[in-house]
Design a protein that fits this description.
Blueprint: E1 2-4, E2 11-18, H1 22-25, E3 38-41, E4 46-49, E5 54-59, H2 60-75, H3 85-91, E6 97-98, E7 104-107, H4 116-132, E8 135-137, E9 140-142, H5 149-159, E10 169-176, E11 186-192, E12 197-203, E13 206-212, H6 216-219, E14 229-233, H7 235-248, H8 255-258
Parallel strand pairs: 10-14
Antiparallel strand pairs: 1-2, 2-5, 3-4, 6-7, 7-14, 8-9, 10-13, 11-12, 12-13
Helix pairs in contact: 2-4, 4-5
Bound molecules: zinc ion.
Zinc ion (ZN) binds at residues 5, 7-8, 10, 58-59, 61-62.
Length: 266
C-alpha cells in the first residue's frame, strides 16, 4: 500500500508495521503447556487469539529505524525459554541504593550490557505508536491514547534522530526481580492524569512508563533524566498480578486457563 509514512511523512510503500514488536508475541506463549495462543483479557470477556496488532504505518526505512533503534536489542533481553538476560545483568551489578521494599536502584549506564539509548528509544517508539493510531484486531482494540500533540511532535523528531529526547518527558524502566515474570503484555495506557501525567506499558518482565511535565523530584528515578536510573523489583510482579486479577474478574475464564492468570484462581 502506498501512503504517507506516519513517522517521516514520505509518500512511499508502507510496510505492515507492528504495534507491539512481533518478536514479543512468541514470548507470550507456553509451547509445552496449554497456552498455544495468546489469551486476550478484557473487562467482560476472554478470548484466545493469535492476531497481532499491525497496520500499514511506516515506510521501510522507518521500520528499520525502529528495529535498529531498540526492537532488536530489546528482543533478546527477555525470553520465553525461562532466561531473562536484562534481569540477569542487573542482578550481576551493584545497586546504588536498596529501598526498604527490597527494590534495587541502579545507575543504568554502569550496568554491564545495558544500553540506555536503546531502552529509551524502544519505550519512546511504543508510546509514540500508541499515540499516533487506533490499533484493532478482531478480539482486541487499543484506541489511540491522548498524548499532547506537541509531545507527539517532539517524540517524532527524536525518533527520527532530528532532536534529543523531549525535555518535558521522562521514561521509567522497572524490571521484575523474580526469575519467571508474567508472560503477558499490555500496550500503552494512560495511567495517571496531571499533575502526575503518566502512561505505562508492560512486556514480559518489564514495566515502562512515560511521564510528562513531572516535577524535578519525580523525574529522578527515570532512565532518560540525568540520573539514568533503572530499577529491579519484585513489586513489578505483584503489580502485574493485581492488574491481571482486576481484568480477569469479569471474564469467563475456563478453569484450565484460569490457573495461569495472575489472579491465581484455580
Ligand atoms: Zn518513514
Amino acid at each position: 500500500m502506498i501512503g504517507n509514512c506516519a513517522l517521516c511523512g514520505t509518500n512511499a510503500s508502507l510496510i505492515n508495521s507492528h504495534f507491539m514488536p512481533a518478536s514479543l508475541y512468541q514470548e507470550l506463549l507456553d509451547p509445552s503447556g496449554p497456552i498455544k495462543q495468546m489469551i486476550v483479557l478484557k473487562k467482560d470477556q476472554t478470548h484466545q487469539s493469535s492476531e497481532q496488532f499491525s497496520m500499514p504505518l511506516l515506510c521501510q526505512a522507518c521500520g528499520v529505524r525502529f528495529q535498529k533503534g531498540g526492537e532488536n536489542w530489546m528482543g533478546n533481553r527477555y525470553r520465553s525459554d525461562g532466561s531473562f538476560p536484562l534481569r540477569d545483568m542487573l542482578v550481576g551489578a551493584t545497586p546504588i541504593e536498596t529501598k526498604p521494599d527490597g527494590s534495587n536502584v541502579y545507575a543504568a549506564r554502569q550496568v554491564l550490557g545495558v544500553d540506555v539509548e536503546q531502552l529509551i528509544y524502544f519505550a519512546a517508539s511504543l508510546f509514540w505508536r500508541a499515540g499516533v493510531a487506533d490499533w484493532k484486531v478482531k478480539f482486541a482494540d487499543a484506541p489511540k491514547i491522548d498524548i499532547d500533540p506537541s509531545l507527539m511532535t517532539a517524540l517524532q523528531q527524536y525518533l527520527l534522530a532530528l532532536s534529543p529526547f523531549p525535555s518535558q518527558a521522562s521514561i521509567f524502566v522497572a524490571v521484575d526481580a523474580t526469575t519467571a515474570p508474567w508472560r503477558a503484555m499490555w500496550s500503552p495506557i494512560k495511567q495517571n492524569d496531571r499533575p502526575q501525567l503518566r502512561y505505562s506499558l508492560y512486556i514480559p518482565g518489564i514495566i515502562m512508563e512515560l511521564g510528562v511535565d513531572l516535577p524535578p523530584a519525580l523525574r529522578v528515578p527515570s532512565i532518560s533524566d540525568a540520573t539514568e536510573i533503572i530499577v529491579l523489583s519484585d513489586v513489578v510482579y505483584k503489580y502485574v498480578a493485581a492488574i491481571g486479577a482486576s481484568l480477569s474478574e469479569g471474564s469467563a475464564l475456563s478453569k484450565s486457563l484460569a490457573r495461569h492468570f495472575p489472579s491465581g484462581r484455580s
